[in-house]
C-alpha cells in the first residue's frame, strides 16, 4: 500500500483524468497512471518550492495564494 507522502493515489489520478475524457470508455494503463501521479507530485513540489522562494524574496514568513499566483505563469510554461 502506498503512503500518503509518496504522492498521489492512482485512484485519484484516474478520477482526475477521467473527468476530462470525452469518451467514458477511455482506459488508462497502470503505467500511465503511475507516470501521471509522478508528474503531479513533481509539479506540486516545484510549485511549493517556487512559492517559498517568492515569499522569501518578498520577506514574507508564510506562502499564500499571492506568491503562488506570481510563480504560476512561469511554472506552467516550464511544464
From TrEMBL:
Q: Which UniProt keywords apply?
A: Cell cycle, Cell division, Centromere, Chromosome, DNA damage, DNA repair, DNA-binding, Kinetochore, Mitosis, Nucleus
A GO cellular component annotated for this chain's UniProt record is:
Fanconi anaemia nuclear complex
Q: Which InterPro entries match?
A: CENP-X
Supply the Gene3D superfamilies for this chain: 1.20.5.4980, 6.10.130.30
Q: Which cell locations does it reside in?
A: Chromosome, Centromere, Kinetochore; Nucleus
Q: Name one GO biological process term.
A: kinetochore assembly
One short Pfam name that applies is CENP-X
The GO terms describing molecular function are: DNA binding
Query: Which PANTHER family does this one have?
Result: CENTROMERE PROTEIN X (PTHR28680)
The UniProt entry's sequence similarity note says:
Belongs to the CENP-X/MHF2 family.
Q: How does it assemble?
A: Heterodimer with CENPX, sometimes called MHF; this interaction stabilizes both partners. MHF heterodimers can assemble to form tetrameric structures. MHF also coassemble with CENPT-CENPW heterodimers at centromeres to form the tetrameric CENP-T-W-S-X complex. Forms a discrete complex with FANCM and CENPX, called FANCM-MHF; this interaction, probably mediated by direct binding between CENPS and FANCM, leads to synergistic activation of double-stranded DNA binding and strongly stimulates FANCM-mediated DNA remodeling.
Output this protein's name. Centromere protein X
Give the originating organism.
Heterocephalus glaber
Amino acid at each position: 500500500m502506498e503512503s500518503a507522502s509518496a504522492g498521489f493515489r492512482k485512484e485519484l489520478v484516474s478520477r482526475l483524468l477521467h473527468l476530462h475524457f470525452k469518451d467514458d470508455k477511455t482506459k488508462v494503463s497502470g503505467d500511465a497512471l503511475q507516470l501521471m501521479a509522478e508528474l503531479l507530485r513533481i509539479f506540486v513540489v516545484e510549485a511549493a518550492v517556487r512559492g517559498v522562494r517568492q515569499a522569501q524574496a518578498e520577506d514574507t514568513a508564510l506562502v499564500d495564494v499571492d506568491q503562488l499566483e506570481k510563480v504560476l505563469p512561469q511554472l506552467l510554461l516550464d511544464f
